[in-house]
Design brief:
The chain is an alpha/beta fold and 208 residues long. The protein has a single domain, classed as Rossmann fold, CATH 3.40.50. It contains 7 helices and 6 strands; from the N terminus they run H-E-H-E-E-H-E-H-E-H-E-H-H. It has a 6-stranded parallel β-sheet, sandwiched between helices. Strand 5, helix 5 and strand 6 form a beta-alpha-beta unit. The termini are far apart.
Length: 208
């Protein structure tokens, strides 16, 4: 031992070794949950492959989780979903979803709106074998014109509507409101003239 140095008593040396290393606190990184897009195809026996393909495209483009209620349409193995949903399952899905996409069936549209969503609606096209006639297209055009839904006939419109809805949150306008339409951002979607919406549904269903 060099002159002038003193040995460290063993108990003190052991105590120093037992003191944990103090590190500066690390900032906590809060990760937002991945948003969920619920896609509802209904139970019509016609396949709706186009909307399933669009759902995959939206998942790829946005990184959102996608759940597809696919009915008679074959679901690719890389998508999550179910052929049919019970009432409780549908209610839970609508509650968890950031965005709801439906085909042009009035029942699912009303369910989505009752849960506070402004649904993105893709009407089935009979020319593509997705339905027997064009009544979904006519129905969706009418209610979109009144501001009750965001209609998407083509993939670019669909991408845009879903992306806007993901940013804006539940009930946010998912696209431009047509002339004469009601701006859905003025209040809760579930409170937006439900009686008027019901009258439109009855009127259009009786025409078909």
């Amino acid at each position: 031992m060099p002159p002038g140095d003193r040995p460290v008593p063993r108990p003190v040396a052991r105590a120093a070794a037992d003191v944990p290393l103090q590190r500066p606190p690390r900032e906590r990184v809060v990760t937002a949950p991945t948003p969920l897009v619920a896609v509802l195809l209904g139970t019509d026996h016609h396949p709706f492959d186009r909307l399933v393909d669009w759902s995959r495209e939206v998942r790829r483009a946005t990184g959102a989780d996608v759940f597809v209620q696919h009915g008679a349409t074959t679901l690719p193995p890389d998508l999550t979903g179910a052929a049919v949903l019970g009432l409780a399952e549908l209610s839970s899905l609508l509650d968890r979803a950031a965005v709801v996409v439906t085909h042009g069936g009035p029942g699912l549209i009303m369910e989505a709106r009752a849960a506070g969503h402004l649904p993105v609606v893709v009407p089935r096209d009979p020319r593509l074998g997705e339905h027997v006639d064009d009544h979904q297209q006519r129905f969706v055009a009418r209610i979109a014109g009144a501001g009750f839904v965001a209609a998407a006939q083509h993939l670019p419109d669909f991408r845009r509507a879903v992306s806007i809805a993901l940013v804006g949150g539940r009930g946010a306008p998912a696209g431009p409101v047509p002339p004469g339409g009601t701006p859905p951002g003025d209040g809760p979607v579930a409170d937006l003239a439900p009686a008027r919406f019901g009258r439109l549904v009855d009127e259009l269903l009786h025409r078909t």
